[in-house]
């Protein structure tokens, strides 16, 4: 019993007391541990409402005591009582009053209840045998064990009270009931109703009943105290876990945003480099070839506008980045020391064709007009690639899917979807699978959070969730910037071109496919 009920040690959080090494690990030590003798935790009722309920309980027992006395008097229980009737009522009602403070002063309440029990038992024992009084004695002992702040004092007081009660019971049986009565009623063995001496049987019966009565109150009270201690420890642990989870989430968000900040640096470096080269070319051919100089200036204008727009989106996302304390300098999957080029749309076929633990994968690319994917800016292509990468990782880890499809769509014509305008067309990546969520593999959700933050930097839209026909969908659509000089012209919108921009499942031909 001690192993199953021992509360965790305050000096060893989460470890049951019975598992903590002790110099004396005997039965007595385990019993003291079970009673929480060394615990520094105090069980205190939550608020004044608990004390008000105790007052109502005491009043309820007082009423029950008065009613039971009257019922007992009507049944003739008090016929041999010589004391005045008002004294009988007074003693019965007053003996229940300590229950009104049972949780505020549990040990004092126990001493008063059992003291009154002893006094009444010596003068008017008929009161003590009434059922409400018996229940009151059980509740008082149970409360003392379950709510005592000082566990050592609880053991002393409870042991003393139980010892006094058993002494009184022995004396009452030996003197008041009298051995002579039983001997006179059953003088010889032939007069015994059963196989056991009536006096011995009566003594054993009284002993067993009172052991169950007092022992049950003590065990039930201590089990409730241990359960309350466990609830308090679980509450403290859950608060700690929530704080740690929040801290880890913040760290992951900071790491992701620091990586986006590095992408901002790459965006700025790219556009400034292009502007510098085009400006130098324009300066050199300005006198000899004004047309080429004008083309270079148009390129400078396009690059500067695109760079400013991308920087505005990225800075808007990074504006709320908290101070990472320097820890974010090396965070993220792409280390600060890595000089490899960032992946883009051209890497999607290789990503899809890679080994995905037996998953049957298909890549589809839809362009309107042909070659429109080449006009997607590199930062936007990186975001679409990372979206497909995270979605495929989730399919492998958290899904029962057997097949998955990655579809890239780049459409250079105005569109409106869900109230959002795509004035110059859109670039979209969609990952579909045919599986169901795998139980026991739920992730932290940070990957999907990263996808949404990337979409927010480009002012796009995202759709993540289960499909009505089965499986799961991750779809991200980002608005394309205005086309620059020399861009692929937009084909007229016809039924055939509308079909080309339809979902990949409806396209029987005119697509690039890589099947893995």
Summarize the structure.
This protein has 516 residues and is α+β, with helices and mostly antiparallel strands.
List the topology elements:
Layout: H1 2-5, E1 8-9, E2 12-16, H2 27-34, H3 48-74, H4 85-94, H5 106-123, H6 125-128, H7 131-147, H8 151-185, H9 198-285, H10 290-318, H11 348-353, E3 360-368, H12 378-398, E4 403-411, E5 415-417, E6 420-422, E7 426-433, H13 446-457, E8 461-466, E9 472-479, H14 495-500, E10 512-515
Helix pairs in contact: 3-4, 3-7, 5-7, 5-8, 7-9, 8-9, 9-10, 9-13, 12-13
Order of helices and strands: HEEHHHHHHHHHHEHEEEEHEEHE
Tell me roughly what share of residues is in helical segments.
Answer: 55-70%
Please give the order of strands in the largest beta sheet. Answer: 8-9-7-4-3-10
Shape designation: rod-shaped
- The oligomeric state of the chains shown is single chain
Largest sheet: 6 strands, mixed
Which residues sit in consecutive blocks of at least 5 with pLDDT less than 50? 1-24, 323-339, 490-516
Which structural class do the helices and strands define?
Answer: alpha+beta
Number of strand segments: 10
Radius of gyration, in angstroms, nearest whole number: 42 Å
Question: Given the structure, what is the number of helices?
Answer: 14
Q: Averaged pLDDT, please?
A: 77
Q: Tell me the span between the first and last alpha carbons.
A: 60 Å
Measured by DSSP, the beta-strand proportion falls in 5-15%
């Amino acid at each position: 019993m001690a192993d199953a009920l021992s509360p965790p040690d305050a000096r060893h959080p989460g470890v049951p007391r019975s598992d903590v090494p002790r110099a004396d690990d005997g039965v007595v030590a385990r019993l003291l541990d079970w009673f929480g003798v060394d615990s520094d935790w105090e069980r205190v009722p939550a608020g004044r409402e608990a004390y008000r309920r105790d007052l109502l309980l005491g009043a309820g027992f007082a009423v029950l005591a008065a009613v039971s006395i009257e019922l007992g008097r009507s049944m003739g229980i008090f016929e041999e009582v010589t004391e005045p009737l008002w004294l009988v009522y007074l003693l019965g009602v007053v003996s229940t009053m300590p229950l009104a403070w049972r949780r505020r002063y549990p040990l004092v309440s126990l001493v008063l209840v059992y003291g009154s029990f002893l006094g009444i038992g010596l003068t008017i024992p008929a009161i003590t045998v009434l059922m409400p009084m018996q229940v009151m004695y059980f509740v008082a002992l149970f409360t003392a064990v379950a709510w005592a702040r000082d566990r050592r004092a609880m053991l002393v007081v409870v042991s003393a009270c139980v010892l006094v009660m058993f002494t009184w019971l022995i004396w009452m049986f030996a003197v008041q009931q009298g051995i002579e009565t039983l001997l006179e009623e059953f003088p010889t063995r032939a007069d015994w109703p059963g196989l056991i001496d009536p006096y011995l049987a009566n003594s054993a019966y009284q002993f067993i009943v009172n052991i169950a009565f007092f022992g049950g109150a003590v065990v039930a009270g201590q089990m409730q105290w241990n359960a309350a201690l466990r609830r308090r420890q679980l509450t403290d642990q859950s608060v700690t876990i929530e704080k740690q989870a929040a801290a880890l989430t913040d760290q992951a968000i900071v790491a992701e945003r620091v990586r986006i900040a590095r992408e901002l640096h790459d965006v700025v470096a790219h556009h400034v480099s292009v502007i510098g080269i085009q400006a130098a070319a324009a300066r050199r051919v300005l006198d000899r070839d004004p047309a080429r100089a004008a083309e270079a200036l148009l390129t400078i204008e396009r690059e500067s506008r695109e760079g400013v727009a991308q920087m505005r989106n990225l800075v808007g996302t990074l504006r709320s980045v908290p101070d990472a304390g320097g820890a974010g300098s090396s965070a993220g999957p792409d280390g600060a020391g890595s000089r490899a080029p960032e992946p883009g749309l051209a890497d999607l076929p290789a990503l899809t064709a890679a080994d995905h633990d037996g998953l049957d994968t298909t890549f589809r690319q839809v362009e309107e007009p042909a070659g429109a994917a080449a006009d997607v800016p590199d930062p936007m292509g990186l975001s679409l690639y990372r979206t497909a990468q995270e979605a495929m990782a989730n399919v492998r880890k958290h899904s029962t899917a057997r097949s998955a499809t990655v579809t890239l769509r780049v459409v250079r014509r105005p569109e409106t979807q869900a109230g959002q305008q795509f004035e110059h067309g859109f670039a979209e990546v969609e990952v579909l699978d045919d599986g169901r969520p795998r139980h026991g593999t739920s992730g932290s959700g940070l990957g999907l959070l990263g996808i949404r933050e990337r979409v927010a930097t480009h002012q796009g839209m995202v759709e993540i969730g289960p499909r009505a026909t089965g499986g799961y969908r991750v779809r991200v659509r980002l608005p394309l910037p205005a086309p620059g000089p020399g861009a692929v012209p937009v084909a007229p919108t016809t039924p055939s071109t509308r079909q080309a921009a339809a979902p990949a499942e409806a396209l029987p031909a005119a697509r690039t496919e890589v099947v893995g």
